[in-house]
């Protein structure tokens, strides 16, 4: 799991909620843990300014509504974060209805933290490689599926398909990518496109996304290739 992940816990059991918050907060690859006790709070938090979260832990037996209904509402409202449902029940029917509601995985109580962490890491890793993921990028949120960058104030920067592909590939690599590799990944190995085409797209992309015109602080050039600036 990459550094700086955020997790939302929706769990009404006070002891379990506190325990999960404390234990998950101690994981070096988890940046923030937000915990609420009801489905209504969970929906409000997941769709509010604190979101999107990298993963949601959702109890099935909440005091105000069934966790499966909460999951359906989250999906209907556009929340694409992976959801792991927590339940005291252990039956195929419960698992099936939870997955049908839009959950990605199902963990039965009591569970060992090591097992839960393995499930969390697997779901986040899988989600990061889907276009539904939302990535932090400098002052923006990067939404590949929407081909868009968005500021905290809600300003939207539209991206072309190639610009989106460039940012997505650089973000997922997390390191410098040489021009030939980036060209092949974005345009295809047999495209016959020259590196000049890539450099033109990089130039136009920088004009769109760099916070200060003329300064390359997000999309960096290194010897032989490009990389995205890391956090901070």
Automatic annotation (TrEMBL):
<dbReference type="GO" id="GO:0032993">
    <property type="term" value="C:protein-DNA complex"/>
</dbReference>
<dbReference type="Pfam" id="PF00072">
    <property type="entry name" value="Response_reg"/>
</dbReference>
<dbReference type="GO" id="GO:0006355">
    <property type="term" value="P:regulation of DNA-templated transcription"/>
</dbReference>
<dbReference type="GO" id="GO:0000976">
    <property type="term" value="F:transcription cis-regulatory region binding"/>
</dbReference>
<keyword id="KW-0902">Two-component regulatory system</keyword>
<dbReference type="GO" id="GO:0005829">
    <property type="term" value="C:cytosol"/>
</dbReference>
<protein>
    <submittedName>
        <fullName>DNA-binding response OmpR family regulator</fullName>
    </submittedName>
</protein>
<keyword id="KW-0238">DNA-binding</keyword>
<dbReference type="GO" id="GO:0000156">
    <property type="term" value="F:phosphorelay response regulator activity"/>
</dbReference>
<feature type="domain" description="OmpR/PhoB-type">
    <location>
        <begin position="132"/>
        <end position="230"/>
    </location>
</feature>
<feature type="DNA-binding region" description="OmpR/PhoB-type">
    <location>
        <begin position="132"/>
        <end position="230"/>
    </location>
</feature>
<dbReference type="InterPro" id="IPR016032">
    <property type="entry name" value="Sig_transdc_resp-reg_C-effctor"/>
</dbReference>
<dbReference type="InterPro" id="IPR001789">
    <property type="entry name" value="Sig_transdc_resp-reg_receiver"/>
</dbReference>
<feature type="domain" description="Response regulatory">
    <location>
        <begin position="6"/>
        <end position="124"/>
    </location>
</feature>
<dbReference type="InterPro" id="IPR039420">
    <property type="entry name" value="WalR-like"/>
</dbReference>
<feature type="modified residue" description="4-aspartylphosphate">
    <location>
        <position position="59"/>
    </location>
</feature>
<dbReference type="InterPro" id="IPR036388">
    <property type="entry name" value="WH-like_DNA-bd_sf"/>
</dbReference>
<dbReference type="InterPro" id="IPR001867">
    <property type="entry name" value="OmpR/PhoB-type_DNA-bd"/>
</dbReference>
<dbReference type="InterPro" id="IPR011006">
    <property type="entry name" value="CheY-like_superfamily"/>
</dbReference>
<dbReference type="Pfam" id="PF00486">
    <property type="entry name" value="Trans_reg_C"/>
</dbReference>
<keyword id="KW-0597">Phosphoprotein</keyword>
């Amino acid at each position: 799991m990459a550094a700086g992940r955020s997790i939302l816990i929706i769990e009404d059991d006070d002891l379990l909620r506190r325990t999960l918050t404390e234990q998950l907060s101690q994981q070096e690859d988890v940046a923030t843990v937000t915990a609420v006790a009801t489905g209504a709070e969970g929906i409000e938090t997941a769709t509010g300014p604190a979101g999107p979260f990298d993963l949601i832990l959702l109890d099935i037996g909440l005091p105000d509504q069934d966790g499966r209904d909460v999951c359906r509402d989250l999906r209907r409202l556009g929340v694409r974060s992976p959801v792991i449902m927590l339940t005291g029940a252990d039956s195929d029917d419960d698992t099936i209805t939870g997955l049908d509601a839009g959950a990605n995985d199902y963990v039965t109580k009591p569970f060992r933290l090591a097992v839960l962490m393995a499930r969390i890491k697997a779901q986040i890793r899988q989600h990061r490689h889907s276009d539904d993921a939302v990535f932090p990028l400098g002052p923006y949120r990067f939404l590949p599926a929407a081909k868009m960058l968005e500021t905290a104030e809600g300003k939207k920067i539209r991206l072309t398909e190639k610009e989106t592909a460039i940012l997505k590939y650089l973000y997922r690599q997390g390191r410098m990518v040489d021009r030939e590799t980036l060209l092949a990944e974005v345009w295809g190995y047999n495209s016959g496109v020259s590196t000049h085409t890539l450099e033109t797209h990089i130039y136009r992309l920088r004009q769109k996304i760099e916070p200060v015109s003329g300064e390359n602080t997000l999309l960096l050039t290194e010897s032989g290739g490009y990389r995205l600036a890391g956090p901070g």
